[in-house]
Predict the structure.
Amino acid sequence: MTERIVKVTRDQIESAKLLIRLRGGEDKVDPDIVLIANARRRTRPNPTESATP
Amino acid sequence: MTGEWWPAILAFVGAAVGSGASFYAARRDTQAQASAAADDLHQRERASAREEWGRRFTAALADLNSDDSFRRRQFGRIVLAALVDSDLTSPEDRQLLEDVLLAHARFDQEGDEVGLGAQGMAVDDVRVVEDDGDEAARGAAHD
């Protein structure tokens, strides 16, 4: 199964969180808004690991 | 002797009833005026508070749509969240804010809509990550 990565900004995340709060829960908004609100920071590769051959 | 007192008694009773009635009428009128003044004051205070609420709402919306910094936009969100819990907020104001936030969540700053469910893809197949602006990490994330 291919997984598509969608990037969103911090503004989009915070607006989605506030919208969920105003509506009264994650079940009161569209699923894509819940996904945006729960977006996580990507785990960056460790620079020390990438520097080593 | 008894007949001599009747006019005085009747005059006294008449004066008492008359003054009592006028006192009652005056008191009722005063209470009505006080009640009307209190209602008027309450309405003026509410109109003033609503006006101030509108000013803050407008300023917070401007902050939310500012291009300056994330910090300013976040302050706008915080103020809007506080304002919308006020009893001065009408259902139309609340709906307006929800629509604005919905557009904010769905569209990035370039105006592109986040297409999470596009191309027949279930939302479970989509991983949403925060855009940290680090293009170098993108390749690593796809690997």
Q: What stands out?
A: The interface with chain A takes residues 70, 73-74, 77, 80-81, 84, 94, 97-98, 101-102, 104-109, 114-117, 121, 123, 125-132, 134, 137, 140-142 of chain B (CB under 8 Å). The first helix of chain B runs from residue 2 to 64. Helices of chain B lie at 2-64, 70-84, 91-106, 135-142. Chain B is about 70% helix and 5% strand.
